[in-house]
Amino acid sequence: MNKTSIFFSILVMFLFSSCGSYKEIPYFQDLDSSRPSQEKVNNYSPVAIKPADILSIIVSSRNPESSAIFNFPSVASSSNPEDYLNKGYLVDDQGMISLPLVGVMKVSGLTTSQLRAKLRDTLLTYYKDPVVNVRIINMNVSVFGDVLRPNVYSLQNERTTITQALTMAGDLNITAKRKNIILIREENGERKYINIDLTSKKIFDSPYYYLKNNDEIYVQPDRTKYATVDRGYRIATLVLSGLSIIAIVLSNLYR
Q1: Which of 154, 174, 171, 153 has the alpha carbon at shortest distance from 163?
Q2: Where is the Polysaccharide export protein N-terminal domain (predicted)?
């Protein structure tokens, strides 16, 4: 086998090995898409309030002037984190908040629905038919690594999933490792590192599919990331390879 044949063989092997990685790209590969299917959702549990959460508590009643003492102005459109500190109830290190009329109340460990019901029962002493709304207003997740728009994202919905967060970040780049997404979560004084495989539909049953406040999602790039970013390097490599082939062919023709 001459040098030209050897070179072409190596080049073909390289091209086929590059194309073979496509099988790692699609999500949920073990999902049967040939027919509709359904399954029960049993891995979701409501988010529990914890220290450092900031709560929006809105109370309305038949006496709006009186119940207005609970209500901070809305900060829904604000992008300044300090606005949330000034316009919500901060849960302290002991899991407590301090409310008008009610005083100090332990809220950590409760869901927003449970706190809403508890507050309504308490406020029946002061108001007739009070309506209470509770929301965690500083819920956010960090998405970084090999995604289109790495950032810290505010969550408007307590039932946000890892796939929704990745969508907010513009989805994974083509060079990202879909089998090795790392979810970082602090819980009960411990930091956990959980591997998530987006190529399997088992993610839908994972206890980590639904996100919690301050979760971090790291998307690891594969080995082709550098070549993808440095397009000039790739083009130069292809040009040099082409020139080498031409040089070998010409050399054999005029030998």
Answers
A1: 171
A2: 45-136
Domain boundary among 95, 114, 136: 136
List the domain range (segments joined by +) for residue 67: 54-136
Contacts of residue 250, defined as CB under 8 A and 6 or more positions apart, other chains included, come to none
In total, the chain counts a number of residues equal to 255
Query: Cα–Cα distance between 20 and 23 in angstroms, integer?
Result: 7
What pLDDT digit, counting tens, does each position of 5-44 carry? 555 555 545 544 444 467 778 888 887 777 787 888 888 9
- Tell me, yes or no, whether 130 and 163 share the same domain: no
Q: How many domains does the chain have?
A: 2
With beta carbons less than 8 A apart as the criterion, state whether 248 and 4 touch: yes
Together in a domain, 188 and 119 = no
If asked whether residues 127 and 175 sit together in one domain, one would say no
Q: In this predicted model, what pLDDT tens digit does every residue of 34-49 receive, in sequence order?
A: 778 788 888 898 999 9
